[in-house]
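Service request form, structural biology core

Requester: graduate student, group of Dr. S.
Request type: structure prediction, single chain
Budget code: on file
Notes: please return the result as structure tokens.

Sequence provided:
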Amino acid sequence: MPRKQSVTNSTLEKLGLKPYKEKKGEEYMNDAQYEHFRNILAAWKKQLMEEVDRTVHHMQDEAANFPDPVDRAAQEEEFSLELRTRDRERKLLKKIIQSLNKIDDEEYGYCESCGIEIGIRRLEARPTAELCIDCKTLAEIKEKQYGS
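Core staff response, request fulfilled:
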């Protein structure tokens, strides 16, 4: 099972961002919070796009026609792993764009299953989250039971 990617506090720092500090009595998903998550998602998207560019350049620069079959196989395996990683990131980019669209539509931050608030900390840990922790846990239990 592939490792799920998420944005942690250390990643927020790498992106030059800080965790959101909620103010007492503040309304959930106000303009400041939408802006905070828009910044996280945009920075994450930019980082992934830079990785794509690096991969393309790396594969162009490193591509060689090795006479030794073992060397050729090793390079093909390296490129294959890199392309699989980029494919997972391509799917992640799609989710990031969907999340940015939800922010634009002011639908971001609410569980798609039950409609309750997902929560600031959960969204900081996984900005593309579509389910609250309870619905996600239930979905994972069902997935294990039915092997979907």
